[in-house]
Amino acid sequence: MNSKITIKVIDQSYLKQISTLGQQLNPQLTLEQTEAYFLEMFEFRNYTCFGLFLEEKLVGISSAWTTVRLYSGKQLEVDNVIIDNAQQSKGLGKKFFEFIENWARERNYKTIELNTYVQNAKSHKFYFNLGYNILGFHFLKKLK
């Protein structure tokens, strides 16, 4: 890939592009719902959003949350990891995670944790290849 790749922390000025990518991961949400969720995330002090640009176009995002856990210490929990469907399997995800991991190391994080959907076998292979291991089960209960 000879295209110019830029990866950086981004803010809500990219909301429309972030939300459009967010819908690729969660197509059941409307664009308005996706935008509202991302706006709410940006309000949290422990939230960071990473952007991956290809020739100035945002083609990848990852949300990240700073937490401290007894089992892992200061931790970066990444979620909403999305590479535009048209740009997948070109090595961008690996470059994206190299950046995120280096960013975390430079800020003295001890671990990185993530969740991925059970049915997303392609992502499981990707994370295993990057050295991530399954630690446990992630449970969810929707509140009424």
Automatic annotation (TrEMBL):
Transmembrane segments: none annotated. InterPro entries: Acyl_CoA_acyltransferase, GNAT_dom. Gene3D superfamilies: 3.40.630.30. Signal peptide: none annotated. Residues 5-144 form the N-acetyltransferase domain. One of its GO terms (molecular function) is acyltransferase activity, transferring groups other than amino-acyl groups. CDD domains: NAT_SF (cd04301). It comes from the Bacteria. SUPFAM superfamilies: Acyl-CoA N-acyltransferases (Nat). This is N-acetyltransferase domain-containing protein. It comes from Frigoriflavimonas asaccharolytica.
